[in-house]
Specification:
Blueprint (H helix, E strand, L loop, with lengths): L1 E5 L6 H12 L5 E6 L3 E4 L6 E4 L1 E2 L8 E4 L5 H4 L3 H11 L4 E5 L2 H7 L7 E2 L15 E2 L4 E4 L2 E4 L4 H14 L1 H10 L18 H12 L1
Parallel strand pairs: 1-2, 1-6, 2-5, 6-7, 7-11, 8-9
Antiparallel strand pairs: 3-4, 10-11
Helix pairs in contact: 1-5, 5-6
Length: 208
């Protein structure tokens, strides 16, 4: 299975690295980072750079695409090269997936019309603009389209996807190998459990 992960300026690193790591431990998967042209692409913190080794045109028909999100999504929504690549690739993929606000890019490429989908909680309602039905769930699978909620949910999606492709035994084996056994120190990772004042502060931080 050939995975292609598009990189654009100001992507969120964990959106990429989480699912990449989860699937990289499984046999039979290869990953190519793609962009408008081969070369370095820097994340939203300005400190981490990943290298795209191929252009969009060089990887027209991957088996799986994983579209990350991040602050750079705003500009990426106007990137015709990226959106057209997603649209064309989606016609041939076995799985079309996204993490966080990457789902907005799937929507802009026409891949979410009529489907249930998720994204980061702060932008969930924006999915309606693309004909999708927003769902406040960690991972949503509709046909061959899988969307994950904000940032850390990418690893959940990778294991869910792996179970569908290689079986639950393989997915559980990878989960054990990467020791994915989360025990968060606080119950503030969701708007359902975080104190209301914290949610408002988070909204302010995200909007800035």
């Amino acid at each position: 299975m050939h995975i292609a992960i598009p990189l654009f300026p100001a992507f969120t690193a964990l959106d990429v690295v989480g699912p990449y790591t989860g699937l990289a431990f499984a046999p039979g998967f290869t990953t190519t980072f793609v962009s408008d042209r081969p070369g370095p692409v820097t994340d939203d913190q300005g400190a981490l750079t990943l290298t795209a080794t191929a252009s969009y045109d060089e990887v027209p028909r991957p088996d799986i695409i994983i579209v990350p999100g991040g602050p750079g999504t705003t500009d990426a929504l106007s990137d015709d090269g990226l959106l057209n690549w997603i649209k064309r690739a989606h016609e041939h993929t076995a799985w079309t997936t996204s993490v966080c606000t990457g789902s907005l890019l799937l929507g802009a490429a026409g891949a979410l019309r009529g489907l249930r989908a998720t994204t980061h909680w702060s932008l969930l309602e924006q999915l309606e603009h693309y004909g999708a039905r927003p769902c406040e769930e960690r991972v949503v699978i509709e046909g061959k389209v899988a969307t994950a909620a904000g940032v850390s949910a990418g690893l959940d999606m990778a294991l869910t996807l792996l179970a569908r492709i290689r079986g639950e035994d393989t997915a559980q084996l990878v989960q054990l190998v990467i020791e994915y056994d989360p025990e968060p120190p606080f119950r503030a990772g969701s708007t359902k459990t975080a104190p209301p004042e914290l949610v408002e502060r988070a909204r302010e931080l995200l909007s800035s």
